[in-house]
Amino acid sequence: MAQSWDGFDGFLELIDYPMFVVTAHGEDGPAGCLVGFTTQASIDPPRFLVGISKQNHTFAVSEAATHLGVHLLAGDDLELARWFGGQTGDEVDKFAACSWHAGPVGTPILDAAPAWFVGAILDRFDLGDHVGYLLNPVDGQAPGEPRPWINLSDVADLKPGHDA
């Protein structure tokens, strides 16, 4: 295991990252998980980077996928975020307990998400215990005004369905 600089852990504790639900369409149906490792990676052309744990069921589905869905959930959808973060698709059909539809290229879109986009996977990068997916946004929706989104502090006590 790589050494961690103590100050770095303290630095990270200062950041209240937004949390996203990432979805993929696989041969056995939809998959999705709660993720916090994301960032805009380019303005022109538009690019977004999503990190998915190698231990996660969604990772296995994402490895064969051509597109991923990236969803922002509003603060009042905390239970949905906890569902996607606290369960594993290895044991539970997460999509049986929520409303969703097939979006672009069959990518699962959560109906409760007021903001989402589907991105074509341009590249994959080994990031350690996660794999980064570089996405080119191809479709999506966003509300006209900002909302209080679910952040790391909202789910900090969540026991994940899989370890990182």
TrEMBL record:
A molecular-function term among this protein's GO annotations: FMN binding
SUPFAM superfamilies: FMN-binding split barrel
Top-rank taxon: Bacteria
Pfam families documented for this protein: Flavin_Reduct (PF01613)
Domain called Flavin reductase like: residue spans: 12-151
Keywords: Oxidoreductase
Family per similarity comment: Belongs to the non-flavoprotein flavin reductase family.
Protein's recorded name: Oxidoreductase
